[in-house]
Amino acid sequence: MEKVRKSKSGGTVSASVGPGGHYNACVASVIREYRPADFDNLWRMDQDCFAPGIAYSKQELKTYIRSKSTFTLVGVDAKDSIRGFIVAHVSQIGHIITIDVAQEARRSGLGSLLLLSAERRLREGGSHAIGLETAVDNVTALAFYKRHGYHVVRTWPRYYSNGVDALVLRKDLDRA
Q: Where would you tag: which of 25, 89, 102, 167 has the fewest CB atoms within 10 A of its CB?
């Protein structure tokens, strides 16, 4: 069971429990705003999370994070160690640019907490829907997004620089 609440510092806190469930036991995370000092850790995490040709170069990730129309949320543990992050673009149809969770933090509820926090912020920013892409062979990500109400709207051939096709997914926030 995942419990989400606001912390005194304005971040979102999640406590996930695992006994009898499918999450890691008793993992707590706080969602906070990105800080420039986080960048190298986020870039390394992106390299670890995605294959070459799908992971962003340093310049690509830096450009997305610095864009005035995007925001980056970072999931940290009690010691402020980065466990995951999400970058999203605000517009009428918001866009999840990337969501990365460190291997040791997967199945802790952090990915869901990051996504739900970004969806809330996108809705507050005026987005009526959210789009994103995932590699056709990333069945774990596809299952994750489907659990969160996303549906496939099309396939984009050879989307990634390594030639892999992407599935384009969408979620309507007006009905969520």
A: 25
